[in-house]
Amino acid sequence: MRLGGELLLGLVFLGVFIMVERRQSSPMLHLELFRVRMVSASFVAAFFQAVGNFSVLFLIMMYLQGVRKLTPMAAALLMVPGYLAGGLLGPVTGRLVDRFGPAGPASAGLMIQAVSLFLYAHLGVSSPLWRVTAISIVNGIGNAGFFPANNAAVMKGAPRGAYGIASGMLRTFANVGMVLSFATAMVVAATEIPRRLAFAIFVGTGGLSPLLRTSFTQGMHAAFYLAIGLMMVAGLFSLLRGPVSA
């Protein structure tokens, strides 16, 4: 009941914020940008992608440290190849966007991320650790497809003189999604294990008993399936963003 009230209050404040912004000569958010389908769809795609994907690292680090008993450093090193793959392939996506437009590469990146989430959802208490690294590489490839293409879509669709504003609004949508993603992950973790233990696992000062390992892993699977659904929503908006001239 308390959560529902807080959500309702948040929606009310959001409505008030939009009303105030519409009357400002120099608003923080230029609502006119939402009239450009290319830009508005890219904002929404960024939001849902962030909600679905940013909690991945949080959950996997808890899995590696709490379920698999790795140190924070060892757990982090397993994820490094995925970020390297994303960094190396990002410029390739940029060239593809210049040639074919942003919709295809961005949507393909989202689908690849959805595949990685599905694979994460099948990790067990004794899965080989190399599998975590392999899936992180798949996720990194998906990130390399989505982020450069979605960013380019916003820049290509924004009116001349509004590039800085559009970029800032894109980051706002992504950052709000990121916060919601971490909050969702915390709710899942706190549902399956005590909150204090969840925090201790994340900072590397605690672990899980055999019974709680299985329970947390099952909760982690549910979170990943939810993330897949969110990624599909992001993919829908990515496909429907329309041509650059829209």
UniProtKB/TrEMBL annotation:
Compartments reported by the entry: Cell membrane
Annotated Pfam families: MFS_1
Record-level Gene Ontology MF annotations: transmembrane transporter activity
Topology class, membrane: Multi-pass membrane protein
Entries under InterPro entries matching the protein: MFS, MFS_dom, MFS_trans_sf
Superkingdom of origin: Bacteria
Keywords: Membrane, Transmembrane, Transmembrane helix, Transport
Gene Ontology cellular component list: plasma membrane
Residue ranges crossing the lipid bilayer per the database entry: 38-64, 76-97, 103-121, 128-149, 169-190, 197-216, 222-240
Claim: Phosphoprotein is one of the keywords in the record: no
Xref: Gene3D superfamilies: MFS general substrate transporter like domains
Name of this protein: Major facilitator superfamily MFS_1
